[in-house]
Design goal:
6 copies of one chain form a homohexamer. Chain A is α/β, with parallel strands linked by helices. Helices cover about 45% and strands about 15% of the residues of chain A. In chain A, strands 3-2-1-4-5 form a 5-stranded parallel sheet, sandwiched between helices. In chain A, helix 2 (about 50-65) runs antiparallel to helix 7 (about 150-160). In chain A, about 55% of the residues are buried. The interface of C and D includes residues 43, 170 and 178 of C.
């Protein structure tokens, strides 16, 4: 039987650490499901890119790296805002899987309470590759391109991702378009 | 006519202070409606327990204390996220009542604008019994059992509530399962 | 260990058939959880009564019948509008249970897919006691009081339930307050 | 004190009957609040026009008719899908009012349960002016322009409203864009 | 530049007609985006399969047919229940595209109002391949396997899809798990 | 053709700076659409007033200032909580417009990505007129009346707005009625 593994991230943006994790998981499982969390979010400093943009970045980065796309499923997963429903929600959006890889204690807890096998991947270099760091570098005009796969650099350029982030950074941290007034 | 009083809390978890309030209200009213607020929340540091778990804790604690269960209605109330609708929302979930007990100024304001009698209960010892303090003690491995009724201790043990809270506390404060990636 | 059974209905309104089911279940289980489905609905022909009104009807009918209220949990459950999430949703609102009683094939299917024991109660007299029939009788001015417990008759009278239903029946079947125009 | 009256419709589209009602109400009240119900709906056969389009139609028709715009408030009101919350919802979107005009029994019931004065306007000629009839005429290529104010005809033309409705009518009645597949 | 085409369906289940359409589009475009509409729906007669199950069926059927998976993006798209927002919603979930293929007049209208090129694919044999027909055949025990790709037959068997549909068909058409009562 | 300009704020409350902006825009455009953002919010320190109250304040202040009400459309706009949908959402609630005035970088970004002309109004004296400052002054019992139009002072008095804000300020900043317990 096909052994599928789930890994969920927000991929804002996908970075080299993610690719290492993907390759590691594909050594242990037949197929990998990459869940794009907070799929409905975009155009915020925390979540600058749409689900479609993130899907494009991931797809191209996987191809560039020579990972067989037929072994990977990319699945956008919108938030459900209710922890008690979250595992069922993920199950309904994803092809069936038998193991979950995560470093997040809450994700681990929820899947374990639901009876799933949860593995923690040997830690990739969190310090260098954190999405938060990359987004900060984009906003501050620092070098960020070396931290992500070349394919991601290209998509970010095509959609003027850095320009978008700088515009977002000028807004008050708490202001959204729905909180525009003075 | 039956005089019913409403008291709303989140009961994360129910503590001895709550029981004192319940007994006080039942001296002044025929029946007590215990509203479990934020019913849809669970598995966060602020709201670790599900509505069903809280209902079980309350029911057993009331029985243990010898309070007549026929005089108490326990009603889970999900959030409505809109203050202008909140009073109507509570009214639709609850048996009819004629008086509200609360120490919360916003709750007092909203029910008063809606024409309800609102009473503030003589303050029980807030400092010792605050839910926040109890949850912190659970996470930090301090003694918390003396602050809640024995029945609550038992339910927390049955559902490994302290283990759940410690797992949650390892997650970044702002991360939910839907904000899992890096 | 306590053996709890779940039974979910909309109870628009509770009728004598429901009471028979409750008594039957309480012979087989220690405690009964009565889930009030579609809790957020009210003031429609299909769902005329609020969750709070239904909770009051159920509570009084149980007391009147001499059923120990300490063995029964009444839990309003709002709709989640997503079948894949429904079982998790019910689990989070309800005290833990180990068996589900239902005559509804979808409810049976969903709980069975989730690994629960599901039992079908020996059919009470559906023809006479269907909620739909009772609501139709209320609207058409026919006798309905003999089909429900006396306590329910009393609550319906207190809230002018029949008057409400007749008003609702004058609206176009598809019109809600939000579909008011011409 | 200013006496304001509320009238809620969907105005799909506004027609001559509505204008008669507005003029009638303005003889009895100082100001009129015109609530545009189901504001979030558009591009369906039942609700072809957006709230913004309907607001434009109403504003121009009122001006054309010589009604003082300073005496009229046009307020889009999205659905709340919960009858128990509907009155509070309308109250929060609308300037304060003391009387409600409606022919809809459910609207009448809900506002009366909330303690409001509700009046039924002497029936304008429903048969000729029903919104449903006008929409059917648009779809079937029949004459409809005589049933609505000239300003409405002009807006419908500007936005190709009839073309939109004919396109919608070719879709299966139950299909929305979200139900597109076969 | 890469020319991407969007096709949206519900794929309940994917059938041979869909594959013909996919192959036709891939002759005219570089890449195909297959949007799975009503992604959040499952376990109803109209939408029996989860988004994850449908994604699995599509992925395997494409592979079986020898279509290069690197040229196809499969994107689950939950409903947004608001036609005015639907195009923006699809855009945010999908990689960028420049042309939309659809036979649905509403989808065509909405994308055209948004300025997109919309093409109607030469009609595949709708009569034989309609999803509705296939679901009816499943429920009634008729032969349906010849209408879908072999890979879809296999997934339906793995998840006991026919058993699920028959259970669903025993429920009253209008009953969901949230409308369970009697 | 009529040239309409959009300006969106939360107007908690409308102040003299807003009126200056309105007059400036009306020199450059034929008609002004005043969007009331976060329309569904009220009874919080950040958003104390309902959409209806804000609409009343704006309407009276415009009349008092001698601005032709026939040239101004006041449109409450509820939040959509999704930046990718926000522009479409505003478009559906508002009469058509061809230019947007804003000082908010995110609003500017979103409308520019959607192809709209966006102008930044020469900055009115932000320091004195910020809504936040006015709300703080209300809470702290400082003079605030000179910062808003006289008509706004009058409405705030009629609805006991300052009393409401002081009550709200006694609640924990993060507590809403739905977070009431201890």
């Amino acid at each position: 039987m096909v052994r599928r593994a789930l890994f969920i991230g927000r991929f804002q943006p996908p970075h080299k650490g993610h690719l290492e994790v993907f390759k590691g998981i594909l050594k242990e499982a037949d197929e990998l499901i990459v869940g794009i969390g907070s799929a409905q979010e975009s155009h915020t400093l925390e979540n600058p890119f749409t689900a479609g943009e993130r899907m494009l970045m991931l797809g191209r980065a996987l191809a560039e790296e020579g990972i067989e796309t037929s072994r990977v499923h990319i699945v956008p997963i919108p938030d459900v805002n209710n922890n008690a429903l979250w595992v069922s929600h993920v199950l309904s959006y994803s092809p069936p899987f038998s193991v979950v890889y995560t470093g997040n204690p809450l994700v681990r807890r929820l899947f374990r309470e639901a009876g799933y096998e949860v593995r923690t991947f040997p830690l990739y270099n969190r310090k260098d590759y954190m999405g938060t760091k990359i987004r900060e570098r984009m906003v501050r005009g620092k070098k960020w391109e070396h931290l992500v796969p070349p394919a991601v650099v290209k998509v970010v350029e095509e959609i003027d991702g850095v320009g978008r982030m700088r515009d977002l950074s000028q807004s008050d941290r708490l202001l959204g378009p729905r909180k525009t007034g003075t």
